[in-house]
Amino acid sequence: MKTQFAKKNEVERKWYVVDASDLVLGRLATRIATYLRGKHKAIFTPHVDTGDFVVVVNAEKVRLTGRKLDQKVYYRHSNYPGGLRAETAKSLLSRRPEQVLVNAVHGMLPKNRLGRQMIKKLKVYSGPEHPHAAQQPETLSIQ
């Protein structure tokens, strides 16, 4: 009995579209990370990118539970002395709603070059429109 490993050129990628309206951010991000990694497939291999493309629409309508809108803080640094910037989830959601979802999903992917390759398959849009209709994405329902 031999273990079969997926090869990069044998992976068949699908496109999925997710409507993020009134979905909880963390629960949505875990499902998206699962599809980006390919863990929903029988051919999942940890060291090969077997995942699919995920298009998220209505990112500005995502929900945060509890008091996270006011208490959750996103940090970034400019690599200059004193360059630490902090921003609450409420201000980031109003300014760049796509970035909130990208940060949540990115934290759930591997911290190596494979994870950086997987996050490129995530396309997030704040409104209901997306330019990926030519790929004929399937609707992915997340409860």
List the helices and strands and how they pair.
Elements: E1 15-19, H1 25-37, E2 53-57, H2 68-71, E3 73-77, E4 84-88, H3 89-95, H4 97-106, H5 113-119, E5 122-124, E6 138-139
Parallel strand pairs: 1-2, 1-6, 2-5
Antiparallel strand pairs: 3-4
Structure description:
The protein is α/β, with parallel strands linked by helices and 143 residues long. The protein has a single domain, classed as Ribosomal protein L13 (Ribosomal Protein L13p, Chain: A), CATH 3.90.1180. 29% of the residues lie in helices and 17% in strands. The chain contains five helices and six strands; from the N terminus they run E-H-E-H-E-E-H-H-H-E-E. The protein has helices spanning 25-37, 68-71, 89-95, 97-106, 113-119; strands at residues 15-19, 53-57, 73-77, 84-88, 122-124, 138-139. The strands form two sheets. A four-stranded parallel sheet has the order 5-2-1-6, with helices on one face. A two-stranded antiparallel sheet has the order 3-4. Helix 1 (25-37) crosses helix 4 (97-106) and helix 3 (89-95) packs across helix 4 (97-106). The radius of gyration is 17 Å and the shape is globular. The N and C termini lie far apart (38 Å). The model has no long low-confidence stretch (mean pLDDT 96).
